[in-house]
Structures are given as C-alpha cells and as structure tokens.
Design a protein that fits this description.
The chain is of the alpha+beta class. It is built from 25 helices and 22 strands.
Length: 624
C-alpha cells in the first residue's frame, strides 16, 4: 500500500520537460507580481505560485523522508510554506516556493540528459561470424562462437572475436582499440581484436577470446564501470540541510516560546529558507556554461566545471588530439645516383595512385605535379603495392615486401631508415626490380596550437601527460616536440584507465582529453573528460563531460581559468547569501521583519546573486 502511494506521489512530481517547468514558473512569477501590486480580485492570486511551485516541493520532501529519511533543503521550505499559509501569509509562501523552483530549474538545465553512448558502443559489436568447418563455410551469430573455432574475415568486415591469424595477410584498422591513425599490418601468428576492422586482405583466424572476454565487450564494461565510479557533487544547501532544519526549528520554537508571537516564529522559518544559497551555484554554472559555449565548448555535465577547477593533471591522447591524426610526407630520400628526392616521391606517388591505403593516399596528395598513368597495379595486403611506371616495375611497401622480392637493405640504407623510425615516422621503401632506390617517411602532424596550449597549462599548475596507443618511438618523438615529460605508449583502453586511476589514487584531479572510441573509458573515468567534437567519435563525445566543438585546443586554458573564476564566484555568492540569511534571522528574532518583508529580502538577495553570477558571461582571462 505504501509503495503504491509512493509511486503515485512520484508520478505527481513528474514534470513534463524543461519547457513545462519554464511555463509553470512564468505563471507563478506573474501571479506573485499581481499579488504584490494588490489588484482587487475575488481570490488571492498568489495561490497559483503556491500550488504550481509549492506542492511539488512538499511532495518531494515527503517522499524523501518516508522512503529514505533523506533530509534536504526542501524539508525546511515545506515547513515554511505550510506555516506561512496557516497564518495567511500567502505571498511569502508563494515567493519562497517560486525562488526554490527557479533554483531547481537552473540546476536541472545544467545537468546532462540521458545519453546513448553505451548503446552506440554496443552497435560496434559484430553481430555475425563466418565459421569454417572443413570445406564448408557458415554464418552464425557472433555470440555463438566458441574458443578454437576457425573464422574467416573478408576485407571490410569487423572482426567478431579475439583471435590469432592462422593464414593470410592483411592490414587492420585498430583505431577503436588503440586510437592509432594508421592500419597495422598483420600476418600469420599475429593477434587480432574484436571490433577492429579488416581493411584489405582476407584471412583465417582461430578464436581465443569470445563473449564477455572479447576486447570490444571489455571496452563496453570499462565505460560502464568508469562512469559508475565517478562521484557527483552534492548541492551545498542539501549537504547542510539537516543542520539547517534543526537550527531553524530550534530557533523558531525558542522565539515562539519566549515572545509568544507566532508571526515572528513563522518569519524565522521564511528567512531561514536557503533561497539565495540554492541559487548561488546553478546561476554561476549557467553563466559559465554560456561563456564556455562562445569559446567552442559544449558543457554536457552540470558539475563538470566545478571538477575542472581542481584539476592538477591533464592527460592527452595523441592521435587526433595533440596531432591532426592524418599522415603526411615528412621526407623523401633518394638512396641511388640518378634519382633525386623529387623522383622518389613522384615514382612512389605514381605507383600508389590506385591504392586505398591511408599511407598511399597521403603520398599521392603530397605530390603537387601531374602523375603519369601506371600499369599492372596490384596491392599486397600487409606488404605494399607494385606497378609499372614508364615501363619500370616499382615496389612501394615495407621490409617484408622487399624480402619477398629478394631485395636486401645495405647497412647505410638501413641506418638512414632507422633515423626516421626513431623519430616516430612510418617508412615506405621504394624499389625497382633489382634494388632499393629510396624511401618515403610519413608522420602525423602536431597541431599548431598544441605547444602554446601545453605551455599555458604548465604555467597554471596543470601537468600534461601523454597516453597513446602508438609505439614508443612515435610517442617519444611527439612528446619531445611538445615538451611533455610523462609519456605512456602502447596503451590499450585498460592501460589508460590504470594510469588515470594511479594518478587519482595519488591525490591528483585528472582531466582527460581524447577523440577516439578507445578513449571513452578514460573520458568517463577521469574527473573531467573533454572530447574533440569535430573529429571525435560519437561514442567519445557521449562519454565526455565536455565537447570541444571546433577542435581548437588553444581555448583549453581559457576554460580552466573560467572554471576557477566560476568557483570564486560561487564562494562569493555563498558567503553573501549566508551572511544575508544570518542578518535576516537576527532581525526576525527581534521582531523587525515580518514574513512578507523577509520574503522580499530573500528576493533581493537572490537577484544580487544572479547579477554577480551573470558577470561570468563576459569573463576573459588576462593574456600572458
């Protein structure tokens, strides 16, 4: 019976969306103004505010007390409402209810709506698998695959479970797991992960991890567990509600007992209501969110800026975050007389012009001249390409391709390639039918604004840390160029989580900035997650508290400075509102204030809090 009653009360409390909230508050506000003017009407119009704003507060207080003995600020508000109505002070009751609901609406507007990030992540999970049994091939649901099943994966298909390649060669897009911008060549004996995409060659694999043990399912679990572990900030008025209620009731009872005046006692309840206290935080957050929006940030979690103000460490993904995430030619090197560096680039670009590989496309786009036609083009998955250029057979690929063509690297040629490999570049070897003639070095490009942004963070006391799925050479090359001292390379999603957890265990407040699906668990786990909104995946954006809409990293120091100023504004608002309440309580105890004047004092205090918060809209940190 009690459960049914509680469900009924909860359904009565359900407010049909923000627009309805605003409409109810508008009607309530108009009714209070008309009541204050004192228009001759057959009934007290302040009852509109009491019914529309006050009854939901009372019902919510009852539900909290009955179901969990949860004492919040709405308990004291309910007492003041009921007491004011009982002695006929309807304007005071309506005004207090209106201000409290206004604060609740502002707070609701700063809280993110339910997001579909987990659902989108689940959609990445392969639905079917191609199982090979003898000479037969059949397609079954992916969840029915068992360990040691032999599976065939065709070009363009998503790998259904974790496993080991037993035949074939290919290139795998592992961005979903590691964030690497370039496909990774795979051959017999190499491990492949579920959720990653086979780009070019067909291969057979033996299943090693299936169901909930597979990589994509573990990624989903990491996102869910990381989100559940993130603490939410509790409103100050609710945090102190128990003490406020106790002190208010004791003060009211003593004043009534000593003075014998019920009006004075009710006035104490009215002025004790934490109206300005309730507005102090959400108004500042709303104004700060407005400022952040103008600087390219979409703040999705209401308390994200509160957490951002305390950040001491900023962890960054590399690809697509500090870098553009697209390979470009950084060097073209001739290793044979008769060929210039320009000739090497032209021959390689000509051979690659029919390639679908990201590296091949990058080489072609980097050549500014007109390319001749090539003949007999063929692509060797996991190796490279070959084609006839002006009647000459040209090979462009990795060392495995050279070995299969029985072309060996001389010592000086290997040393030249090693120089670029240590700098974090990807090297494409260019050869004719008999010997290597040159090489092309490609690398990801660091964003122009990254260096200045990181310097600004360091000067504000925030330490940058690099977390990347790229290899050690690439990670160290980028970190050296950016001046980042702490680097973690070859990171899978769980590795990034462990690093963030270790930092948090050491007392640091951690900011994570990333763009890929593999960053989603870290974005959830960190105290504040910021996703690149332009190039970032939908799942990363859903997992983050804040999205950087234009991918302009130069604005990040502004956001951190804004969050710190916002917290100063909130502390000033709280100090002012508590001081105002204390003075009003003293005046109510000695009988100087009545309920209506007390309500108006509250109203004035609330307006001043809103005006102070509004100054954040135009905040701009001083330039260094």
């Amino acid at each position: 019976m009690i459960k049914k009653a509680m469900k009924k009360l909860e359904s009565l409390l359900a407010i049909g969306g923000t627009r309805k909230d605003i409409a109810l508050l508008a009607v309530s506000g108009v009714s209070l103004i008309l009541s204050l003017i004192g228009l001759p009407l057959p009934f007290d119009i302040a009852w509109f505010a009491i019914i529309l704003c006050g009854i939901p507060i009372i019902l919510e207080a009852i539900i909290g007390l009955v179901t969990a003995f949860d004492i919040k600020a709405d308990v004291l508000v309910s007492l003041a409402l009921i007491a004011s109505v009982c002695i006929g002070e309807t304007f005071a009751a309506g005004e207090v209810a209106f201000i409290m609901q206004l604060g609740g609406l502002l707070e609701e507007l700063t809280v993110a709506k339910a997001r579909a990030g987990i659902e989108r992540l689940v959609k990445l999970t392969p639905q079917t698998a191609r199982v090979i049994s003898g000479e037969t091939e059949r397609i079954i649901p992916a969840e029915e695959v068992v360990i040691d099943d032999i599976l065939r994966v065709l070009p363009g298909e998503t790998i259904p479970v974790d496993g080991v390649i037993i035949s074939g060669q290919t290139s795998i897009n592992q961005a979903v797991m590691t964030g690497e911008s370039l496909p990774v060549d795979k051959t017999v004996g190499d491990e492949v992960s579920s959720g990653t995409v086979n780009q070019f060659g067909a291969f057979d694999m033996r299943a090693t991890k299936v169901g909930s043990d597979s990589s994509i399912q573990r990624l989903i679990q990491l996102v869910q567990s990381a989100d559940a572990g993130k603490a939410k900030i509790v409103g100050l008025a609710d945090r102190w509600a128990t003490w406020i209620v106790v002190i208010a009731l004791v003060s009211t009872a003593l004043t009534w007992a000593i003075s014998g005046e019920i009006l004075r006692a009710v006035t104490i309840l009215v002025v004790f209501c934490p109206c300005a206290l309730v507005l102090a935080t959400p108004t500042a957050i709303m104004a700060a969110i407005g400022n952040a929006t103008r600087h390219g940030f979409l703040v999705k979690e209401g308390d994200a800026l509160e957490r951002l103000a305390d950040v001491t460490v900023a962890t960054f993904d590399k690809t697509g975050t500090l870098t553009y995430g697209t390979p470009t030619v950084s060097a073209s090197v001739s290793l044979r007389e008769g060929y210039s560096d320009e000739d090497i680039l032209r021959l390689c670009a000509t051979a690659e012009q029919m390639s679908e590989h990201p590296l091949g496309k990058a080489i072609v786009s980097s050549y500014n001249g007109e390319l001749p036609a090539c003949e007999d083009f063929s692509m060797l998955p996991g190796r490279g390409v070959q084609a006839k250029v002006n009647g000459q057979r040209i090979l462009a690929g990795n060392q495995e391709m050279l070995a299969e063509a029985e072309i060996s690297l001389r010592e000086n040629e290997a040393a030249e390639a090693e120089k670029y490999l240590k700098a974090g570049c990807t090297v494409i070897y260019v050869a004719n039918e008999t010997e290597i003639i040159g090489l092309i070095a490609l690398s990801d490009t660091i964003r122009e604004e990254s260096r200045n942004m990181l310097e600004s963070l360091r000067s504000s006391g925030v330490e940058p840390v690099l977390l990347t799925g790229d290899n050690k050479n690439t990670a160290e090359a980028v970190s050296h160029g950016l001046g980042i001292d702490k680097v973690y390379s070859d990171c899978l999603p769980e590795d990034k989580l462990r690093v963030i957890d270790k930092l948090q265990s050491g007392g640091d407040k951690v900011l994570m900035l990333g763009d890929g699906v593999n960053d989603a668990p870290s974005l959830r786990k960190a105290d504040v997650g910021i996703a690149m909104g332009g190039i970032g995946s939908d799942i990363a954006i859903d997992a983050a508290d804040i999205a950087l809409v234009g991918d302009d990293l130069s604005q990040l120091p502004h956001l951190i400075a804004l969050s710190k100023r916002m917290m100063k504004t909130i502390r000033l608002n709280l100090t002012f509102s508590m001081t105002l309440n204390l003075v009003a309580i003293i005046l109510a105890i000695i009988g100087t204030l009545n309920p209506v004047v007390g309500a108006l004092v509250h109203n004035a205090g609330s307006v001043l809090v809103i005006i102070n918060s509004a100054l954040l809209l135009s905040f701009s940190p001083p330039t260094s």
